[in-house]
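$ fold --in a.seq
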Amino acid sequence: MTQEELANKIGLSRSAYSHLENERNEPDTETLNKLASFHNVSVDYLLGRTPVKNINANFSEQEETDIQKEVERLLSDVKKGNYVLEGEELSEDAKESLRGAFENAVRTAILINRNTK
């Protein structure tokens, strides 16, 4: 695929894409998201923050079940009210945020573990 073809697919001019490729410009958040979607990788992977290309890799049905069980285990203290931050019990929004973070952490750990075997 040419620079021009890829640039068109993500809504950039060829010259703007060329500047990104040659590190003359840095992509904005929207462009990073478009590039990650196009290449089916995470933004964190594009930025070199993780060796895991895509946290949403295909997991088997059993793996999905195991992931959810592990997330529930990690959240058990939070649900019981035993997890306090800054002296306060977490709001429901904060608890939901932790759920997402725990799920991403478990998925990432599984994928990293697969790649190190």
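$ fold --in b.seq
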Amino acid sequence: MKFFQITILGVLFYFGAHPYAYGLTASIYGQILTMAESGDLSSSCVNIAGNYPGFNVISSEYGKNPQICLDKSREHVNAIEFWHTTFVATESSNQIRTINFEHNFLNGPQGLIFGSTQMKGFFATENGIGIPTKNQIWFMGILNQANHDDFLAQELTYTVDEALESALFDEESESKFVLSGPRSLRGVLNFTLLHKGDKLVLDPETRVSLNPFEKKRE
């Protein structure tokens, strides 16, 4: 677990050196991926499909690209979320894999705000038989305003146990803030896939967001 803590501190240092990236960006193993307009006026996305050391990123829905997207469909909400994303292990390893993303919002909800970190999805084995025991996921959000970093909410963690149903997860944490003006949201997703072929599938509800008090749950 010390390795994970060092990794997170390193990520915070890295983001602290780049506090105002205006376009949505993602970083996977040092590869910087930038935002491309998808053609849908409600969203702007980074395509994260590809082959990376130890795992591939593929689509969880035929004909769709695995992406990290800004959700522009809800007024006065700042949100970044995963769309159509599946991670597949190409080797057996206990190494922690890390996905970073960030975006600077010029405006958004004002006053009393709920910051939310959510993760929903499931783990699976290569052929769907058996339980992907001890695979893990960690997800955290970071809020930056006026060059000050704070955790968006409590970090979410989950580990698959011996029960089949434990392969599914649905976790959320929230915190309150009083905000005005520009702000930056960042996310750090960490996971392990212990055996070759193991999969991690994320639901679009895997997101970091800032929500007005009256709209914190829709």
